[in-house]
Amino acid sequence: MAIYSIADLEILTGIKAHTIRIWEKRFNFVQPKRTATNIRFYDDQDLKKVSKIALLHNKGYKISNICNLNNTELEDLVAQNTEVGLINADSLDALTLNILQLDEVKFIHIINKQIETRGFDYCFIEIILPFLDKLNDMWLSGSIRKAHEEFALQIIKRKIVQQINLLETIIKDNPNRVLLLMPQNENQQLNRLYIEFMLAKSKIAGLYINDTDIRDVIESCDIFKANHIITFVNEPSSVQFVNELIDSIEKLEPKIELSFIGYLTSSIKEKHPQVRDIKNYAHLMHFLNQLSTVSS
């Protein structure tokens, strides 16, 4: 069982600590436990209840009304308010609650509703990425376990693959072909999948490889006839490899253009100012749109 301080509840639910204390006194909506040394703490059930109340309160329900609901009534009301019409903050609250409960059906339902009403691009950028940031904060604070994180990531990965398959893209009349390279030790599988989705949506042929053998990378470019490489640079171990890759490409395949995504791209730009630094997904989409308009 995880335990939480009142500061943890504030971070995880968005309700200020002093507000939680006031609600405890006025409405008796949760009762903190105490350690042997008389320090207050909350458990998983308290966090779930406060998360539900936070979601409903943000939807405009009076705290005096929702605090008096039993668990079944609270669950029913949350279900009604996570069916349709969620704004971004509500979606984050609802997704977080479903992660805590490991409720796959409701988690997928919320994602599907956002895709239906706003499209997958919006859902990924405005809902999924902020949710993953929140998930990371919860992981760092010890509020969730590895199972919760993997539960969410696996569902999101499946959803991206599903969107790629729905496109059923047939690439025609575009000479631009992209090799998507993941150096070893880079853990960017979710970003890699979304970039594959962006390539398919832009009708640009792409090939993903995971390698740190420069000869294999160059050979793959030759076989696939790639004229662009997009790679990730988030780990210090990738910097030397990428610098060596650039030097080799410039000598052996000077027509291939290189673009980089990640926290350490500035280290690459210092030595190779000519390479493209992709700062965010909007920047990448602009670049892919340029490639997709080129015809042979």
Would you summarize the structure shown here?
The protein has helices at 6-13, 17-27, 44-58, 63-66, 71-81, 88-100, 104-118, 120-140, 146-167, 189-201, 214-224, 236-252, 265-271, 281-292, and strands spanning 33-34, 40-41, 177-182, 205-210, 228-232, 257-261, 276-278.
Explain the overall architecture.
- The protein is of the alpha/beta class.
- The chain has three domains: about 1-80, Multidrug-efflux Transporter Regulator, Chain: A, Domain 2 (Orthogonal Bundle); about 80-170, Methyltransferase, Methionine Synthase (B12-binding Domains), Chain A, domain 1 (Orthogonal Bundle); about 175-290, 3-Layer(aba) Sandwich (Rossmann fold), CATH 3.40.50.280.
- The chain is built from 14 helices and seven strands.
- The strands form two sheets. The chain has a five-stranded parallel β-sheet, with helices on both faces.
- Strand 5, helix 12 and strand 6 (about 255-260) form a beta-alpha-beta unit.
- Helix 3 (about 45-60) crosses helix 5, helix 6 (about 90-100) crosses helix 8 and helix 9 (about 145-165) runs parallel beside helix 10 (about 190-200).
- It starts with 5 loop residues before the first helix and ends with a helix.
- The model has no long low-confidence stretch (mean pLDDT about 85).
